[in-house]
Amino acid sequence: HTYRVSSENYHSEAGVIDLNAEAKVVKNIQLKPNFGWLQINAEEEFKGAYVFLNQQRLGQAPLRTEALKSGSYQLRVMKPLYKDFEQNVVISDNQETIVDLQLQPNFAQVTFVCEDAESEIWVDEKFQGKGSCQIALELGQYKVETRRQAHKAMTQLVQISSPTEQEFFIKKPVPLYASMEIKSIPALANV
Q1: Nearest CA to 39 among 61, 9, 55?
Q2: Are strands 71-78 and 85-91 parallel, antiparallel or unpaired?
Q3: Is 2 exposed, middle or buried (0-12, 13-18, 19+ CB in 10 A)?
Q4: Taking phi first (over 0 means left), then psi (-120 to 50 degrees means alpha), and beta for anything else, what does residue 189 get?
Q5: Average pLDDT over residues 85-111
Q6: What is the CA radius of gyration of the chain?
Q7: What's the pLDDT score for residue 59?
Q8: What angle do CA 98, 103, 104 make, to 5 degrees?
Q9: pTM of the prediction?
Q10: 131/120 Cα distance (integer angstroms)
Q11: What single string gives the DSSP state of each residue in 13-44?
């Protein structure tokens, strides 16, 4: 007689067994797991990064998955200010696959300085400080504006193209001046 034993997430086992009326036949079968686990370790600065496996979000690093079917998977980890991390991982039967997360910076520490210490500095419409400020910015282009009451705001575009420390001197706002002529009756009235 042939037999086949199977269970979800386990390798099936099949074979031949001889049965006869003279003796009871006992066959102990222990199926081998067809699953493993993935452990994502993260240093403090990488904690909270989003973890995706085959484009399905698993959670945030660090994490250990539930049992995963053995096989090959596409791992992707994303965190603001860092380049996406992508790697193929293989989950083996009854084994834990460990990935020590290392993300590459995709930002620069940027200092903006305005010669007018009372001017507000705005980056992409977000207030950052007065006179000067230091912020981390992802690589890209930003609209930097200096503002002050009774002044015309000054705007410039800034390109951050490398993840190195950078300093920009930005133009101060221009005071708004006006003139007026006052005529009064009587002519010498105090105004």
Answers
A1: 61
A2: antiparallel
A3: exposed
A4: beta
A5: 96
A6: 34
A7: 96
A8: 150
A9: 0.71
A10: 6
A11: EEEE----SSS-------PPB-EEEEEEEE-G
